[in-house]
Structures are given as C-alpha cells and as structure tokens.
Design a protein that fits this description.
Elements (H helix, E strand, L loop, with lengths): L2 H7 L7 E2 L4 E3 L6 E3 L3 E5 L2 E8 L4 H15 L7 E5 L4 E5 L5 E5 L7 H6 L11 H13 L2
Parallel strand pairs: 5-6
Antiparallel strand pairs: 1-4, 2-3, 4-5, 6-7, 7-8
Helix pairs in contact: 2-4
Length: 141
C-alpha cells in the first residue's frame, strides 16, 4: 500500500496531504535536492512530515528530522513518521526523541495531530548542522 493511501485509509482528509517543499543542499560537488513523501497540513500549519523508504526505519529517522527542520524552519511540524511499510517510527521534531515504534498503530489520528502544539522555530545556529546531517544521509557521505 502506498503511504498516501495508508493515511487516507486511517481517516486523514485528502486535502491535508500535501507535497512538501524541496530542500536544496549545496555542500557537495553539485546541488542535492531532498524531499519527503508528503506533509500533513491543517489550516496552513504543518503537522507531520511522513516518508517511506525500504530498510531499517530507525536508521533513516535522523535524516527525516533534519529534513523537517530545514523544510519548515519557522513553523516546524510537531512530528515526523518514517516507515518501510511494515515498521513505523514516530518522533518529535524539536527533541528528536522517538515516541513510538511498531506497526501502523503508532500513527496518531488526524485529530490528535491537530491538537499538538506547534514547536518553536528552529534555532539559526542549528541550520548548518541539519544541512550536514541531511547531506550525509542523503548522499552516503
């Protein structure tokens, strides 16, 4: 099942699943463009960035956190969700802490997501660190 279909089957309104912005990294020989699968948005506010990739979901979590912080530095979403289709890991964007790991049941409802407060903006001094983290994870070094 496609990740988007997974969210729709769990009651997320279709118009809340948006294409996320592209993050452009200029750290290597050529620019690297990175984008997650989609972002859940309500009333103009990002609620969660979700991404699918094969392999170990926990090994991809740090890159998704960096992406969320870079794509939405002024209004970061409260959560990110990384999945390989079988395993799901949910983490807080501000702290980077994993808050749930398991199967599809870790996905909060749309109403639970909307009730989460927005995190503060990403500190400017963190941006270069997040760029390096995302670059390393997305290019293999």
């Amino acid at each position: 099942m496609e990740l988007r279909e997974f969210f729709l089957a769990r009651g997320f309104p279709e118009d809340t699943l948006k294409e996320p912005p592209e993050v452009l990294l200029n750290l290597g020989l050529s620019p690297q463009r990175v984008r997650a699968a989609f972002v859940v948005v309500s009333e103009g506010r990002p609620l969660m960035v979700a991404d699918y990739a094969p392999g170990a979901v926990r090994s991809r979590l740090r890159a998704l956190l960096a992406y969320a912080r870079l794509a939405f530095p002024r209004t970061p979403p409260p959560l990110v969700l990384q999945t390989n289709g079988r395993e799901f890991v949910l983490a807080e964007v501000t702290s980077g802490k994993e808050i749930a790991f398991g199967g599809p049941e870790v996905l909060p409802s749309f109403e639970e997501l909307k009730a989460r407060p927005s995190p503060p903006p990403v500190e400017r001094r963190r941006i270069p660190v997040e760029e390096r983290v995302l670059f390393i994870h997305s290019t293999g070094g």
